[in-house]
Amino acid sequence: MSNLPIVRNSLESYLVRIQQFPLLTAEEEFQLAVRFRQDYDIEAGQKLVTSNLRLVVKIALEYKNYGVKLADLIQEGNIGLMVAARKFDPYRGNRFISYAIWWVRAYIKNFLIQSWSLVKIGTTQAQRKLFYRIGRVRKALEADQENEKKYETLARHYQVTSQDIKEMEQRMSAKDFSLDAPFGEDQDLKPVDLLQAEGPSQEDRVAREEERSLLQHQILNAMRRLDERERYVIRCRIMADEPLTLQEIGKHLRISRERVRQIEGEALKKLKREIGEAMQS
Q1: How is the chain split into domains, by residue range?
Q2: 213: burial class by Cβ within 10 Å (0-12, 13-18, 19+)?
Q3: What does the alpha-carbon distance between residue 225 and residue 272 come to, in Å, rounded to a whole number?
């Protein structure tokens, strides 16, 4: 199907060109579909598709108010039309146009959702339902001044929640914009300059680093007040990345587990006392 007309800059030229492809009778359509399905006759498949290009344009026009170029919608619809031709079973007794219309709409709708925003939209069934009906929803809300009761009525009608409607309105109220684009032609201020960073501020990080450094210094000074055995227990039990067990320390020092526990407790009390006195001074 490489010879299909392509929608280029001149949409009018494309619309004129597709008029030359004649519409098919039910019998002609059946014969072409059989040839394409059984023998993979490319010429038959191409005729089946080109005779319905006007259908794609008609469907694409239904979605022209979504802010997307009509040429892009037609191209996506044509892809759906070709997919329908590959999957169509003529022996089921249905006309190809009745089958293809669903594929054309599916491809156009998917393109609209994907191109609307870099942020994913229409990820749930409720969002997809509202995406294509938001125009009617807004008109209904404007007619009744958007009161809460109207939201509830529309939510029941579309089988969604009031919150679903409010969120979709917010998502579709504005398009994407660049964070690096200045607010005005003569302004250096950009949206990215106004974004608040998550987490602690630079001043908080500096203050915390100073506190950590001071505490570390105080701990090292306090450790000098401990005897050698107490320092060994604190290093192996408290300061090590992989602390040793009481039994392992006791085996090294040749004392019992209980005695190691006592030494650890006494050493911690000394450290707390020394650090507390240093902070008060």
Answers
A1: 11-116, 125-172, 202-280
A2: exposed
A3: 12
Whole-number Å distance between alpha carbons of 244 and 238: 9
CA distances from 68 to 62, 76, 79, 148 (A): 12, 12, 17, 32
Domain 11-116 shares a fold with domain 202-280: no
What is the fold, at CATH topology level, of the domain defined by 11-116? Four Helix Bundle (Hemerythrin (Met), subunit A) (1.20.120)
Q: Give pLDDT tens digits for 6-30.
A: 655 578 888 888 998 999 999 999 9
Query: How many residues in total does the chain contain?
Result: 281
> How far is the first Cα of the chain from the last one, in angstroms, to the nearest whole number?
87
* Own/partner long-range contacts of 61-68 (Cβ < 8 Å, ≥24 apart): 63/108, 63/109, 63/112, 65/135, 66/112, 66/116, 67/175, 68/111, 68/112, 68/115
Q: What is the mean pLDDT of residues 89-105?
A: 91
Mean residue pLDDT of the chain comes to 77
As a CATH number, domain 202-280 is 1.10.10.10
Residue type for position 211: E
Other CB atoms within a 10 A radius of the CB of residue 83 amount to 15
| Residues near 221 by beta carbon (within 8 Å), at least 6 away in sequence | 274, 278
Placement of tokens 């299909």 in the chain = 4
| 184 burial via Cβ count (<10 Å: 0-12, 13-18, 19+) | exposed
